[in-house]
Specification:
By secondary structure, the chain is of the alpha+beta class. It is 34% helix and 17% strand. The chain has six helices and nine strands; from the N terminus they run ββαββαβββαβααβα. The protein has helices at residues 35-42, 64-77, 100-109, 132-135, 149-164, 181-195, and strands at residues 23-24, 30-32, 45-46, 57-58, 80-82, 88-90, 96-97, 119-125, 169-178. The strands form three sheets. The chain has a five-stranded mixed β-sheet. Strands 1-2 form a two-stranded antiparallel ribbon. A two-stranded antiparallel sheet has the order 3-4. α3 (100-109) crosses α6 (181-195). The radius of gyration is 31 Å and the shape is flat.
Length: 196
C-alpha cells in the first residue's frame, strides 16, 4: 500500500502567494478569463445584441423591441380563419372574448384600431383524467398495482365524468381571427353613435 506524503499546515509547500490575472465584476467577484460573465454580472443595462438601433434594455431582461417584432412576425405567419362566435383572445392572451357583444364593447370603449387588433382563436383546456396507479404511486410497493375493484370502478366513474366535462379554461391558439365584414360595420356604427 502506498504511503501518503505528509505536508504540514505551516509548510511553504502547503500554500504560496501567487499573482492572478482575470476579469472582476464591479462587486468584486472574480470571473477568471470569462469577460462576458464579469460584464453580465457587473452591468445593469446593455445594447440590443440583434439590432443596435433598438433602445438599451436591462441586462437581465430582454429587448422589448425585438420581442414586439418577433410577436408581430409570428402573428402574421399564422393561418387565418373567419370568426363565427367561438372563444377568442388577444394575441398576448390577456383579454378573452366569448361573445360578439363583449368584443364590440371592448373595441369601442378602448378606441382600438381594427388594423392593430391581433386576435387568435382559443383552444380549450380540459381536465385531465386520473390514472389510479399513477395517483397512488407513492403509496404502492415498487411495481405494484391497485387491485381493489371498487376503487378502480370509482376512478373509472370519475374519469367518465371528466371526459364529459366542459373546458376548465381557454388558452391562446395558433390561428388568427379574421373578423366578418358585418362585425367591422357594426364597430363603425357604434363608434359613430358614441361620437354623436
Amino acid at each position: 500500500m502506498r504511503e501518503e506524503k505528509v505536508v504540514m499546515y505551516e509548510s511553504p509547500e502547503a500554500a504560496s502567494i501567487q499573482t492572478v490575472t482575470g476579469w472582476v465584476d464591479r462587486s468584486g467577484l472574480f470571473w477568471g478569463k470569462d469577460e462576458h460573465m464579469a460584464r453580465y454580472s457587473g452591468s445593469t443595462h446593455r445594447h440590443c445584441a440583434k439590432n443596435p438601433d433598438h433602445p438599451v434594455h436591462e441586462t437581465r431582461g430582454w429587448c422589448r423591441a425585438c420581442q414586439a417584432e418577433g410577436d408581430a412576425a409570428r402573428f402574421d405567419a399564422m393561418p387565418r380563419r373567419l370568426w363565427s362566435g367561438e372563444p377568442i383572445t388577444h394575441y398576448d392572451g390577456d383579454k378573452y372574448f366569448f361573445d360578439e357583444e363583449s368584443l364590440l364593447d371592448w373595441i369601442v370603449e378602448h378606441e382600438i384600431n381594427l388594423a392593430d387588433l391581433k386576435l387568435v382563436f382559443c383552444t380549450p383546456n380540459y381536465p385531465r383524467q386520473i390514472d389510479a396507479d399513477d395517483y397512488f404511486c407513492d403509496d404502492l410497493p415498487e411495481d405494484g398495482e391497485i387491485n381493489d375493484d371498487q376503487l378502480l370502478a370509482a376512478f373509472e366513474l370519475l374519469n367518465e365524468m371528466i371526459r364529459k366535462s366542459p373546458p376548465l379554461s381557454w388558452s391562446p391558439g395558433n390561428e388568427a381571427v379574421e373578423l366578418p365584414q358585418a362585425f367591422v360595420e357594426m364597430v363603425a356604427r357604434e363608434r359613430q353613435e358614441a361620437q354623436a
